Amino acid sequence: MGGLAGCKDMTTGAPGPEQSTGSDAGGGGGGGAALTAAKALTVKGRAPKTGYDRDRFGSAWADTDTNSCDTRDDILKRDLEDVKFSDGDCKVSYGVLEKDPYSGKHVVYRRGRSLVDIDHVVPLSDAWQKGAKYWDSRKRIALANDPLNLIAVDSSTNRSKGDGDAATWLPPNKSYRCTYVAAQVAVKKKYELWVTAAEKSAMEKVLSTCSGQKLPSGGNPTEAPARFTSG
User: Fold this and answer.
1) CA–CA separation, 9 vs 78, rounded Å?
2) Quick one: angle between helices 177-190 and 197-207, nearest 10?
3) Is 127 exposed, middle or buried (0-12, 13-18, 19+ CB in 10 A)?
């Protein structure tokens, strides 16, 4: 993810597990490009969840970047250490999340009995209620598989998030909150999603304490290749 240090593959434009550049627990002197972008996000009320279905964002982990690996394995390769493969250099069978960004814990990934989730930083249900309902299928598929919006995290901590936005859920690991909120802002700006007033306030509260927090960039195009469709 552009503007965030520590990513293994900077071409993906993704959050990555160890990229906090500030702390929500700090004092004054915050700001930076992420806060500026947060202030510019469009504010509207949350639309009804009516009509939402995961399938509206295409089949899970589609290979939208055409590298012959599905999106889940791409993110595992990017975010885990000591990666081992069961098939060439694509299907990840083992790896270690040295420091889970959400909890700060050391988490081991083993395929088939994984303690690691690939989280959508901006949940798909949240996106649906804040603009994605009105998109065509190729843009929804792009969002669901964009490395800018994906990160490997501890599964048990991630389950507490649900489809929460910044007003209702932040990572328990406070040292990661600046990076996390900056990533949400980047995704919402890139895909022209709106935020609620409470969400924007929460974003600004966190980012105002993050000295010089940069705005991530990069990831995949906002429209999946023409071969992709969804329900």
Assistant:
1) 6
2) 130
3) buried
Structure tokens belonging to residue 40: 């510019």
Determine what percent of the chain is predicted with pLDDT higher than 70.
86
Structure tokens that stand for 150 in this block: 């994906």
Structure-token pair, residue 67: 């590298």
What pLDDT score does 113 carry?
A: 85
CA distance 204 to 210: 10
DSSP-derived letter for residue 144 is H
pLDDT band with cut points at 50, 70 and 90 for residue 169 = very high
Instruction: Output DSSP code: residue 15.
Output: -
Alpha-carbon distance of 64 to 77, in angstroms, equals: 16
Nearest C-alpha neighbor of 15 from the set 195, 185, 133, 160: 185
Residue 147, both tokens: 């490395």
Between CA 6 and CA 124, with CA 153 as vertex, the angle to 5 degrees is: 105
**Whole-angstrom Cα distance, residue 148 to residue 1?**
6
Task: Write down the pTM of the prediction.
Answer: 0.88
Report the sign of the C-alpha dihedral through residues 170, 123, 182, 117, in that order. positive
